[in-house]
Backbone:
C-alpha cells in the first residue's frame, strides 16, 4: 500500500507548508477520506513532522456514512460525530484529504435520512471552518478516475501537475490578472447558446490562492443579483447531490429567472432553484486559472479551477466580494469556453477561445 | 477497496457482540492499523451501529511511527499522541485492529529513539486499559502472510476459521482442559532437547474465554518461581522487538536461569534477560487450545493459541492467576509439541503428540 511516487511527498509538503503554514508545536488533524488516500495521508503526516508539528490521522469514508444510514436508527444517523468535534477543538490546523467515491452508494437511502445525516455532518464542517485553519483537496483514486471518464494514471498526473506549481511565479501572474478586474463594472459573456450580462460595479474580485482548495485557483466576484439579463447554456452537466443535469440552460430577465431546463433530472433542477428566494439568482461569478487542469472531472473542486472556463454559482454570495444574495444553497456550475465563447468586462476581452487574454 | 467477503462482517459482529459485548448507546473507538485492515474496520463499524452504538475510526500505522522517529525531534517522537488518549477517554469500548507490517521498517532508527517512542505509546496503551473495555486482533495482510511464510488467501482463511467459531461448543472444550489443570499442581514438559518441571501449587488457571484477543484460545497460570527446574528448547524462533532468536535454549536450576543460548541474536537475548531481576524468570506458563490455528506466523498473538503448543513468558506474571513475578518485560515464547513431546500435569497427560487430551 506504500507508494514510492515521490510526488506524494512533494504534495504533502505543499499542503503542510503552503496551505496550512504549519509552525513548530502546531497540532494538525489529517482527515483521510477513503483508504486509497493513504499515500497522501502519510506524506502530509511526514511533512507536518518535518515542520515541527504534531499530526494525528482520523479516518473517514462515505461507506461509513452509508453504514450509519443503512443500519442505524434516526438517533444514530442524526448524531454529530463527537470524536471529530473533539479533534477540531484540539487541532490548530485541519487537512481534509477527500478521495473520490462512487456517487451511487446512497442509491437506497431515503432523501430525508440523507438530509438529517448531512445536517449532522454540517455541524462538523461549521466547526472546522470556524475553529481551525483548514484546507481541502479532492484526491484522485479509481472511483474518481471513473467519475471523470479517465484512467487512474492520467488523472493522477493531472492532479500533481495542477498542484505542484511554481507558487511564486504562477500565482503572481494570476494575482496581477485579478487586480486588473478590480474596478470594472459590466460583465458580458457570449458563447454557444449563451449571451449573459450582469453588473459587478463596486464589487470585489478575490485574490487567487490555493490555500483552502488544492488544486487552485480561481478569482471570483459576486454580481448585483437584480442586473442579470440573458441566458447561459452549459457544455458539461451540472452536478449536485450526486445528480447530473445535462444540457442545462438558464435564463434571467432583470434578475428574475424566467427559464430553467435540463435533459436529465429537470425536476430536481426546479426543486433546487425553488429552495428559497436567493436560490434562483447568481451569487458568484468566477474565472478558472489553472492551466494544468485540462479535463472535466464532474467534481466542482477541480473543475471550477480549470483554465478556459468560467463558472457561476446560484445561491449564496460571498460577503467579502461585496455580495448580498442570500440562500441556503451555493451551487457552482461551470461553462467551458475552450471551444467557443468570449468573456468581456467593460468591453475589454478577458477570455477568448479558451485563452485568458487580459489585453488591458 | 471494498471487500465483499462476508466473513469480514461476521468478524466485525464477533468483535462487537462477543469480545466487547457492546450495548446500545455505547461509544466505540476503532483503531485501524494499516490501510489494508479497512474491510474489518468497516465490518466492525457496521456491527457497532447494528448494536445501537456510536463508532469512530482512528487510523494508525507503523509507517506513521517511523515518520515520527525519522523526521521528528526528540520532543516529537517522545510525544504521547493526545488525540488517541482523548479518544480512549471518550470511548466505552476500544477495538485495536492491527494489520501486519514489515518488521524491518525501523532498520535505521536508533534503539534509544525507538525506546522513547515506545514509552510514549505505552502511555496510550495504559489509557486503553484504564478507560475502555478493549479487544485486540492481529489482522492478516500481505506483510503478515510474508512474515508467516504463507500466501494471503491461506492465512486469511486460517484467521476466519480460528476466529469465527461456534463459541458455545468451543468454550466447553477449552474449559475441559482448564478444569483438568485446575486440580493439579505440578507440570512437566518433555520433548526434543526439553525436560522442564515446575509447580503452580496455590495458583490458578485463567478462563480461556475469548475477549481481549481474537483469534484466542489459551489457558495460563503463573509458576512458583523457585520450583522451575530443567531445560527447554524451541522449534520456532523466539520473536521480540522484530528480532528473531533461532534455536533458542533456556535452562533453570531452582528458579535461577543458568544457561541461555540462541544461534541468532544471542547478544540481544542476553540483554533482554538482564532487563531486571524478574526478566530471567518464568512469569507465565500456558497452553494453546485453538485447533483451527495450524501454522506458525511468528506473531505471538496468534501463535500462543495454537493447539498442540505450550508457551512460557519471561517476566511479568498475571496477578489474576496468583502470579508474583515482576518485570518490565513480558515475553511469550511458544514451544511446538506437535511433532514430539508431552505436557503432563500431576502425572496426567494434557497434551501428547500434538493432541489435547480432553478426558
Residues:
Amino acid at each position: 500500500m506504500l507508494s514510492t511516487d515521490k510526488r506524494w511527498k512533494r504534495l504533502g509538503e505543499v499542503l503542510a507548508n503552503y496551505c496550512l503554514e504549519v509552525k513548530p508545536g502546531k497540532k494538525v488533524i489529517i482527515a483521510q477520506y477513503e483508504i486509497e488516500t493513504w499515500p497522501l495521508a502519510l506524506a502530509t503526516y511526514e511533512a507536518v513532522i518535518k515542520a515541527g508539528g504534531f499530526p494525528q490521522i482520523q479516518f473517514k469514508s462515505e461507506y461509513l456514512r452509508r453504514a450509519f444510514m443503512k443500519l442505524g436508527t434516526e438517533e444514530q444517523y442524526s448524531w454529530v460525530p463527537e470524536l471529530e468535534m473533539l479533534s477540531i477543538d484540539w487541532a490548530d490546523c485541519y487537512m481534509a484529504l477527500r478521495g473520490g467515491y462512487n456517487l451511487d452508494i446512497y442509491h437506497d437511502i431515503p432523501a430525508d435520512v440523507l438530509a438529517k445525516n448531512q445536517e449532522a455532518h454540517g455541524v462538523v464542517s461549521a466547526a472546522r471552518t470556524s475553529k481551525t485553519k483548514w484546507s481541502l483537496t479532492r484526491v484522485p483514486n479509481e472511483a474518481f478516475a471513473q467519475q471523470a471518464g479517465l484512467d487512474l494514471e492520467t488523472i493522477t498526473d493531472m492532479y500533481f501537475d495542477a498542484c505542484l506549481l511554481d507558487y511564486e511565479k504562477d500565482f503572481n501572474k494570476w494575482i496581477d490578472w485579478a487586480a486588473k478586474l478590480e474596478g470594472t463594472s459590466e460583465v458580458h459573456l457570449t458563447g454557444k447558446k449563451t449571451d449573459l450580462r450582469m453588473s459587478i460595479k463596486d464589487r470585489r474580485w478575490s485574490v487567487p490562492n490555493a490555500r483552502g482548495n488544492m488544486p487552485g485557483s480561481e478569482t471570483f466576484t459576486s454580481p448585483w443579483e437584480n442586473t442579470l439579463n440573458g441566458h447561459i447554456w452549459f457544455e458539461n452537466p451540472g452536478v449536485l447531490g450526486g445528480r447530473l443535469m445535462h444540457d442545462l440552460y438558464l435564463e434571467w430577465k432583470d434578475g428574475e429567472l424566467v427559464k430553467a431546463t435540463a435533459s436529465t433530472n429537470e425536476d430536481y433542477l426546479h426543486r433546487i432553484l425553488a429552495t428559497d428566494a436567493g436560490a434562483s439568482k447568481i451569487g458568484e461569478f468566477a474565472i478558472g486559472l489553472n492551466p494544468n487542469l485540462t479535463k472535466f472531472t464532474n467534481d466542482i473542486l477541480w473543475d471550477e479551477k480549470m483554465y478556459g472556463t468560467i463558472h457561476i454559482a446560484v445561491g449564496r454570495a460571498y460577503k467579502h466580494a461585496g455580495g448580498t444574495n442570500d440562500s441556503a444553497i451555493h451551487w457552482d456550475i461551470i461553462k467551458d469556453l475552450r471551444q467557443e465563447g468570449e468573456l468581456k468586462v467593460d468591453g475589454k476581452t478577458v477570455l477568448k477561445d479558451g485563452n485568458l487574454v487580459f489585453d488591458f | 477497496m471494498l471487500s465483499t467477503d462476508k466473513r469480514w462482517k461476521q468478524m466485525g459482529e464477533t468483535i462487537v457482540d462477543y469480545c466487547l459485548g457492546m450495548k446500545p448507546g455505547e461509544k466505540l473507538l476503532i483503531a485501524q492499523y494499516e490501510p489494508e485492515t479497512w474491510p474489518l474496520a468497516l465490518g466492525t463499524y457496521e456491527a457497532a451501529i447494528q448494536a445501537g452504538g456510536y463508532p469512530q475510526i482512528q487510523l494508525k500505522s507503523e509507517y506513521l511511527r517511523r515518520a515520527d522517529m525519522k523526521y521528528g525531534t526528540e520532543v516529537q517522537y517522545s510525544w504521547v499522541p493526545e488525540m488517541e488518549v482523548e479518544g480512549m477517554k471518550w470511548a466505552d469500548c476500544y477495538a485495536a485492529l492491527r494489520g501486519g507490517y514489515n518488521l524491518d521498517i525501523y532498520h535505521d532508527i536508533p534503539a534509544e529513539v525507538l525506546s522513547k517512542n515506545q514509552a510514549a505509546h505505552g502511555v496510550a496503551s495504559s489509557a486503553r486499559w484504564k478507560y475502555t473495555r478493549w479487544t485486540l486482533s492481529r489482522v492478516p495482510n500481505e506483510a503478515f502472510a510474508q512474515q508467516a511464510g504463507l500466501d494471503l488467501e491461506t492465512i486469511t482463511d486460517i484467521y476466519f476459521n480460528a476466529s469465527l467459531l461456534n463459541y458455545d461448543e468451543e468454550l466447553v472444550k477449552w474449559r475441559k482442559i482448564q478444569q483438568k489443570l485446575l486440580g493439579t499442581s505440578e507440570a512437566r514438559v518433555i520433548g526434543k532437547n526439553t525436560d522442564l518441571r515446575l509447580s503452580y501449587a496455590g495458583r490458578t488457571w485463567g478462563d480461556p474465554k475469548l475477549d481481549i484477543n481474537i483469534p484466542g484460545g489459551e489457558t495460563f497460570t503463573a509458576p512458583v518461581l523457585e520450583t522451575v527446574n530443567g531445560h527447554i528448547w524451541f522449534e520456532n524462533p523466539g520473536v521480540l522487538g522484530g528480532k528473531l532468536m533461532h534455536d533458542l535454549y533456556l535452562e533453570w536450576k531452582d528458579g535461577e536461569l543458568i544457561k541461555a543460548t540462541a544461534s541468532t541474536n544471542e547478544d540481544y537475548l542476553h540483554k533482554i534477560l538482564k532487563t531486571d531481576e524478574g526478566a530471567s524468570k518464568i512469569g507465565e506458563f500456558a497452553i494453546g487450545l485453538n485447533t483451527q490455528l495450524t501454522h506458525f506466523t511468528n506473531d505471538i498473538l496468534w501463535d500462543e493459541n495454537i493447539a498442540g503448543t505450550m508457551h512460557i513468558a519471561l517476566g511479568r506474571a498475571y496477578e489474576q492467576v496468583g502470579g508474583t513475578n515482576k518485570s518490565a518485560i513480558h515475553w511469550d515464547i511458544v514451544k511446538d509439541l506437535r511433532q514430539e513431546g508431552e505436557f503432563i500435569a500431576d502425572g496426567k497427560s494434557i497434551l501428547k503428540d500434538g493432541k489435547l487430551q480432553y478426558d
